[in-house]
Each structure stands twice: as C-alpha cells, then as structure tokens.
UniProtKB/TrEMBL annotation:
Keyword Transmembrane helix: yes
Keywords, comma-separated and alphabetical: Membrane, Transmembrane, Transmembrane helix
InterPro entries: EmrE (IPR032713)
Species assigned in the record: Evansella vedderi
Protein name: Drug/metabolite transporter (DMT)-like permease
UniProt superkingdom: Bacteria
Transmembrane parts of this sequence: 37-56, 68-89, 95-116, 136-152, 158-177, 198-217, 229-249, 261-283, 289-308
Amino acid sequence: MKEIGLGLLASMFFAVTFVLNRSMELAGGSWVWSSSLRFLFMVPFLLIIVLFRKNLKEVLNEMKKQPLPWLVWSFVGFVLFYAPITYAAAYGPGWLIAGTWQLTIVAGVLLGPIFFEKIQTKHGLMKVRHKLQWKALFISLLILLGVMLIQMQQANQVPIQMVIFGVLPVIIAAFAYPLGNRKMMELCGGRLDTFQRVFGMTIASLPFWFLISVYGIVKVGAPSSDQVLQSFIVAICSGVIATTLFFIATDKTRENQGKLAAVEATQSAQIIFVVIGEVVLLSSPLPNGLAVGGLLLIILGIFIHSFITKKTKVNRKQKLIVAAKRKEQHI
C-alpha cells in the first residue's frame, strides 16, 4: 500500500526530531527554543510552496470562515503535540521519548469512535459514528509490545523523575497529534490539499509559539547559534518533509479508519531510526538481543497492518449505509 510507504518515509524524517532535540538538550539548549523555532522556520518554506502552487487564497478563506476551530485544533495538533515532546527531551534519552511516543498508534485507533461519517439516505445526509477497529487496535498493541521490548534494555536505569517528566508529557502529545490532525481533516472536508492544511495550521499556531518565544527570552535568553541550526534542520526534515508526507498519507486514507490506523502505525518505525541515529551521532549503546526482538516485532506489526488493510477492501460504504438505515428505523 502506497500510503504505508509514505508513512514509513515520514517516520524516518520524524526521527530527526527526537535525536536532535536530545542533542540540543545535552548541549544546554532549552526546550522553549527547540519547539518554537521549528514552527517559526517552517512558515517561509510552506509559504513558498503554497504560493508556487497558487492556492494561498483558498487557505486564507477557509481560516476566515472558522477562525476559532482553526486556532483550537492547530493548538492541539501542533502546540500540544510538540511542546511536550521537546520539554520531555530534557528528562530522558531519545529512545525513551520516541518509544513512549508510539502510544500515538493506539491513541489513533481509540479516537476513531468520536468521529462521524456522512451517508446519503432517502431522508438526506445522516451522520454515522465510526466503529472501533478491533483488528487495527490488536496489531497496534503488538507494535507497542515491540516498542516496550526495546525500552526494557535500559528500563532499570530510568529514575522516577525521568518517568514523570519524560513520559507523561509525551503521553499527552501522543493523543493530541492524531486528534488535532483528524479534527482538521474533518474541518477542511477535503477542500484544502495537504500543503495548504499544514501551512494553515502552522499560521494558526503562531500566536502560541510567539508567546512561548517571549517566555524563552525572559527566562533563558536567546538561543545559541548551534541550537538555531539544529532547530532549522528539524524544521526542514520533520516540520516540512515528514509532516507533509504523513498528512498526505492520512488524507488519502481519511475515509477508512482501518487504513488510517495502519498509516498512523507506521510512525512506530521512528524508534528504529532513533536508535540508529543515537548510536551514530550520540554514541548511545547498541540494542541488545531483547531490543532486536522488539525491532523485529515492530516490523512484523507494520507488515501485518499493511497486509490486512490491503486485503480488507470490504464494502465499507455498504456497511455504513446499512448502519444508517438501522438508525433511520429508530427515528
């Protein structure tokens, strides 16, 4: 499935975030600048792309129609996702943050039932709630087990403070990212392409990043040139390339909760790239036998997800229509 490939490619670029955020913290940089600079750097690149594609006007019109939802869900999807991740980097290594972040694959499946799909019936459009994808949830939990095996390599060295400040913020981020992404897809309703949506969300989140930047200037001072450079790299690799690839994949699968869950599950591959990156760049220890088993389990889980979603081209539309008719009978 092409969308799975896009998701895996996105996860490789997303991994840059965890490695460089940890690198910046070890060098004395503040999470405030690691988070805000990434999105500030994203703006000109996304603006150039949208201008080149000649569809800036559509983005601005959509944002003017519903400014509050744009602000709220951009805050959830970008600020409430990225600020906790950069904050957590001060309290734990990249493998711990990236590993905990994989909760997002389960979060994505669990969030499915809070969304609806519109079905045309004889009484007009009717909303039908998405059902929990049990197969996707089971496979996602299998991938999560692989992640846990990787983390067990150094679990006995993790103090309670690291767990509280290095794990809890990432749990919040793990639910915020898919929630914000899906809500924005629902809000846009297919009227904007991926580049437009990412640009619009980045613009809508700017007020919050400016506030965080002001806090940074007051509390920790200006960022170092090294942190500015590394934040710039993260902005290009993770903010522009990875986010765009991932949103393209989720846009293509937004009408199918099973396929959408499979795409979101590809993000578990990040931990593989993070382990490699930390070994090469930060001289972290190589994974042991148990961790290698975890890596294989993650790869197996992604393969099963891809196989199931490709094989199960079930008559989803028919099932939803049947559900809508049953709902009609109770009206």
